[in-house]
Amino acid sequence: MTDTRQATDSVQNLFDALRLRETDRALALLDEKIVWHNVGLPKVRGISNVGRFLTLLAKPGYGFDVVVHNIAADGDVVLTERTDVLIWRRLRVEFWVCGTFELRDGKIAVWRDYFDNVDFMKGVARGALRAAVGR
Q1: Helix (H, G, I), strand (E, B), or coil: what is residue 64?
Q2: What is the DSSP string of 82-116?
Q3: For residues 47 and 54, what is the distance between their CA atoms, to the nearest angstrom?
């Protein structure tokens, strides 16, 4: 079982690595058999498949940012409330996400995110408006 503090640190480190476009560092925090599930969408299984998605976020013109509002853990399970930001050129899509991370042997084995599709679409509309007016 992972120590609670170590578990929250692993999740925070994942977010930091993604924010800084350090894909290799992010992947090192994941279990080889990771399951990444954006609830309502198909599950992505295995580190190579998850790695393909994370690599996209590190390409020029793309990016990821996150504001963690709350984080809590009980042993190997970490819960987050956060605002995720997906970036494509001048478009910044901000939306609310609740996530559950399950660790196995100190690595993230399950990454499950819940978000509202309407809130996501509002984020797209707000981001497009900001991009159009140049802010």
Answers
A1: strand
A2: EEEEEEETTEEEEEEEEEEEEEETTEEEEEEEE--
A3: 10
Read off the pLDDT of residues 54-91 as tens digits, 9 standing for 90 and up. 998 889 999 999 999 999 999 999 999 999 999 999 89
The pLDDT value given to residue 123: 87
Tell me the catalytic residues.
84, 113
Q: By the 8 A CB rule, do 80 and 115 touch?
A: no
Q: How far is it, in rounded angstroms, from Cα 104 to Cα 95?
A: 28
- Residue 95 burial (CB < 10 Å; 0-12/13-18/19+)? buried
Give the N- to C-terminal CA distance of the chain in Å, as an integer: 46
User: How many other β-carbons are positioned within 10 Å of the β-carbon of residue 118?
Assistant: 9
pTM listed for this prediction: 0.91
Nearest to 88 by CA among 50, 130, 41, 29: 130
